[in-house]
Structure formats: structure tokens, C-alpha cells
Inverse folding.
């Protein structure tokens, strides 16, 4: 089902017209095509995977290793209600518990949640939307010295060099809540869609809490980083002048919830361990379906869009799912091929609702894997975090005598060879096409950062390693990493990483 919301794009410096706020009939629907691109049942017998793999296609092989898809099938539309699967919380909270840290982590959990709650209460209290509202709950000042700095950072939220790690510290661990609320408010979406402030606050808090803070990479800070990147893309001239307010709302919500409830292990792990999520979603986009249904569950539990007609709410949930499902790495080649065809034929028309939705899908895909395009100081931290999450999964697989997944053996892989392979076969092809679509300073900055970061990892790979720390050569089941490392051998730079002065620093363009 294709959904076309005919809501206008409102400039930030203009008040929201009253007739827009009172209109509900400005939304029209059509059912000319399938929203999710689900395969014809007659074709299921002819296709076993989301994409066809050619042994000579190194990019496809690399993507297959990152996210293996065994079966394609349609699933019913039922949200995952909060606590509907009680074992998810128990299983994956304990997966990455390190020796000697378990008790400390358990005792620190409740205290951290209280701090998040109080910190965001203070933020709401100071926001312009709630000025003049009587304060009913006494506020506890937790980090008053840092709120001013956090506000200063939000003034530059459209800068590509935005340091999400620093912002998370300044907001007392509330980066996702604070950033998402700020962006929704900045676009005027709270007023335009008549969102109840209490419901919105509750929804954002629950979203942040449902991200597993024990995950080195797939946590609320990653979601905040993706949301900030999505905002940068939404500000690009081609999108800023074409997207409707509904498109922007959908894009920001999808970015904030795109990895909701991520367990810290990948899909092949869930399949081979017979996890109930793999069974529930029939081994098809298991994690992405879980993120989407979890988000729908929170939307319905908080009633954030309960004031809209039921059909409108349902279509919003479906389109949210369409965006989140697009982040499945196993679908990378399919989306990239379609993007290339559109660009080659020059037939992308952003006045068309379905084309705008497709561009939102591509923007979210770029935001999800934009870490290699950040400045070295930020990119390196993300690379180390995602690799550590891989290695922790490998440790679990070894402990339970399971076959170790590709890139998850810390004795056979390094951060550098994993990152070089990822940039070569996944990130570079995607961002090259995005630069064709939106040839701006930001696009060129991203490509420049990625080139420098790739060369820096190549330089680190070539550095001599002490015998005591020497690792075995990589045997991850494919030659793509070795090929990527060799390809970068001649372009390596010093191990210290690129200087931020070497290329122009991109920021949002308006």
C-alpha cells in the first residue's frame, strides 16, 4: 500500500496555520502498489534469498557474510508489545556481561534510569514549549553545569562534525531523548501534528530505555548518532525543498527507533541458536522486523498518535516499518541497484510520494552506516565499538562451541581489516551513489573523510606488531578482507589518522 501524505512543508520561521492544525482530511491514500515490496508468492519458490549471489561478486559475498538471509516470507502485522517476550531482556542483558563487572552493572542500572528521568524532566521544564506550565514535580539538579553546553551543541546540530559522545555526556546519558525532542520541536512537528507532550515524553524515554546500554555499538548513542545524521541529510537542498512535514516526522522517528531492542548479536546467531525471534519472523530480516514491531508497540502503548484516525495511524506504522526494514544489510544490493537505475535514467521525481519515500529509505541507510564518513576521532571510536560487539559475539559462540561467525573471532581479525573491507564493499558504493544524487559540500566531505579513514586503517595494518601481541592472519571465510587490505597498501598514511584540516568540514546547507 503506497501512502501519500499531502501535508505542507512549513518553514521554521513561520507560524503553523490554524487551518493546518485542524485538518485531518488532508491525508489521502492509494493502494496501487505494495508498500514493502513483498515478493509475489509465485516467485518464492524461485528465490531463496533477498539477493542473488555470484561467486565473482565480492561485494555481494561481503554483504552476505554481514547478514545472511535464508528464507524470504511475508509476516503478519502485529506489534511486539512491551514485555511480551520476557526472555529477551534476560537473555541478551547477560550475553555481554564481563567477569567481575556483572554485579556493578546490575546495581548501576536502576540509578542510571532515575538520572535519565530527572535530567529529561529538567530539559522539558526549560524548553520554550513548557514555559509557564506550573511545575508539579520537584526537579533535582543533576548536571546543571552542563546544560548550557548541551544547548550550545544543539545550535550546531546540523554540523557533520557533531560529537555525539560529548553530547551524550553533557545530557547525562539522554542524547537520544534530548536530540529527538529538539529536532521534532525545531521543525514544528509537535504543534503541527498536535502531539501530546506527556505522551511524547513517555515515548522517547521508553525508546531510549529499550536500547541495551550493555551493547558496545547498538545502543541509544548509536540511535542518536543516526538521528543526527538523518537530520543533516534532511537539510540537504534537494530534500529540504521537497519533503513534506510528514516525511520529516517519519524520517526522524525511523532514525530514532531503527535499532530498537537490538540484542547485540546478528541474525545468523539468532538463527543457528534457534532463538524465538528467528522463528517468529521466519528467518527473514529478523532484527529489523523486531526493531519495527518494538517501535509500533511503544507507539501504541503510549498512544502518541491515538488522536489520529485509525487508518492514518496504521499507515504511519507501516511506512515506519518500510524505512526500518530498508536498513537490512542483506538488502543492500537491491536498494543500491534501484538507486543507480534511477540516477542513470534521471527519473527520480521528489514531487512523487513513492520516490520521496524511497529517498528516505536511502537516507536512513546512509545514516545507519555513516560512521566511516565521520572525522577520524569519531569514526575510530565507532569502529572499535562495532568490532568489539562482533568479538563479544564470537566469544559467546566459542564458549558454547558454536561455529564462530565471520568477523567475530578476535584472534583472527583486527579492527582495521574489518573496517577496510566494510568501507570497500559496503560504504563506498553507497555513498558514491548518494553523492551523485546530492552533489553538495556535505557529500564531498563524507567521501573525503572515508578516504582518509580508510588510508589510516591501512597504515595501522602495516605497522609492525610486537611478537607478544601478534595475531593470526584473517581466515574469516572469504578473501575480501585480504583483498581490501592489499588494495589500500599503497595509500596508507601515518597511524595517527587524518587531520581535520586536510579536507573541508561539511555542515548542513540550506
Amino acid at each position: 500500500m503506497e501512502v501519500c501524505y499531502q501535508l505542507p512543508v512549513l518553514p521554521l520561521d513561520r507560524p503553523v496555520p490554524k487551518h493546518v492544525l485542524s485538518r485531518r482530511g488532508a491525508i489521502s491514500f492509494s493502494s496501487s502498489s505494495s508498500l514493502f515490496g513483498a515478493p509475489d508468492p509465485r516467485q518464492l519458490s524461485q528465490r531463496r534469498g533477498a539477493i542473488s549471489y555470484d561467486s565473482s561478486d565480492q561485494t555481494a559475498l561481503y554483504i552476505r557474510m554481514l547478514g545472511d538471509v535464508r528464507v524470504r516470507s511475508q509476516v503478519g502485522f502485529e506489534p511486539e508489545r512491551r514485555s511480551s517476550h520476557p526472555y529477551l531482556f534476560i537473555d541478551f542483558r547477560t550475553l555481554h556481561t564481563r567477569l567481575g563487572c556483572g554485579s556493578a552493572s546490575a546495581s548501576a542500572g536502576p540509578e542510571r534510569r532515575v538520572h535519565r528521568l530527572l535530567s529529561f524532566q529538567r530539559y522539558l521544564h526549560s524548553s520554550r514549549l513548557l514555559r509557564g506550565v506550573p511545575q508539579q514535580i520537584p526537579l533535582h539538579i543533576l548536571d546543571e553545569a552542563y546544560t548550557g553546553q548541551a544547548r550550545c551543541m544543539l545550535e550546531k546540530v546540523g554540523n557533520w562534525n557533531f560529537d555525539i559522545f560529548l553530547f551524550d555526556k553533557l545530557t547525562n546519558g539522554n542524547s537520544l531523548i534530548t536530540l529527538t525532542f529538539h529536532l521534532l520541536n525545531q521543525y514544528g512537528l509537535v504543534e503541527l501534528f498536535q502531539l501530546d507532550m506527556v505522551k511524547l515524553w513517555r515515548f522517547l524515554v521508553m525508546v531510549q530505555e529499550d536500547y541495551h546500554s550493555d551493547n558496545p555499538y547498538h545502543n541509544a548513542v548509536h540511535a542518536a548518532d543516526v538521528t543526527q545524521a538523518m537530520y543533516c541529510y534532511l537539510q540537504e537542498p534537494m530534500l529540504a525543498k521537497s519533503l513534506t512535514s510528514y516525511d520529516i516526522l517519519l524520517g526522524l522517528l525511523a532514525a530514532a527507533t531503527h535499532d530498537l531492542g537490538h540484542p547485540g548479536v546478528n541474525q545468523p546467531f539468532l538463527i543457528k541458536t534457534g532463538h524465538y525471534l528467528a522463528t517468529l519472523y521466519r528467518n527473514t530480516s529478523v532484527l529489523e522486523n523486531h526493531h519495527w514491531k518494538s517501535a509500533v508497540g511503544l507507539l501504541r502503548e503510549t498512544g502518541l498518535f491515538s488522536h489520529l484516525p485509525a487508518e492514518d495511524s496504521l499507515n504511519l506504522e507501516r511506512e515506519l516499518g518500510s524505512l526500518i526494514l530498508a536498513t537490512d544489510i542483506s538488502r543492500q544490493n537491491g536498494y543500491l541497484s534501484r538507486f543507480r537505475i534511477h540516477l542513470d535514467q534521471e527519473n527520480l521525481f521528489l514531487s512523487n510520494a513513492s520516490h520521496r519515500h524511497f529517498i528516505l529509505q536511502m537516507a536512513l541507510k546512509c545514516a545507519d552506516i555513516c560512521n566511516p564518513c565521520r572525522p577520524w576521532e569519531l569514526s575510530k571510536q565507532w569502529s572499535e565499538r562495532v568490532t568489539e560487539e562482533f568479538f563479544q559475539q564470537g566469544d559467546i559462540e566459542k564458549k558454547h562451541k558454536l561455529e564462530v561467525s565471520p568477523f567475530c573471532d578476535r584472534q583472527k581479525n583486527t579492527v582495521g581489516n574489518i573496517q577496510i573491507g566494510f568501507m570497500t564493499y559496503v560504504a563506498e558504493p553507497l555513498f558514491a551513489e548518494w553523492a551523485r544524487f546530492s552533489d553538495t559540500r556535505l557529500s564531498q566531505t563524507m567521501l573525503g573523510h572515508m578516504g582518509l579513514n580508510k588510508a589510516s586503517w591501512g597504515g595501522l595494518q602495516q605497522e609492525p606488531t610486537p611478537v607478544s601481541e601478534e595475531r593470526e592472519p584473517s581466515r574469516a571465510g572469504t578473501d575480501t578482507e585480504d583483498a581490501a587490505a592489499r588494495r589500500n597498501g599503497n595509500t596508507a598514511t601515518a597511524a595517527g589518522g587524518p587531520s581535520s584540516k586536510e579536507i573541508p568540514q561539511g555542515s548542513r546547507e540550506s
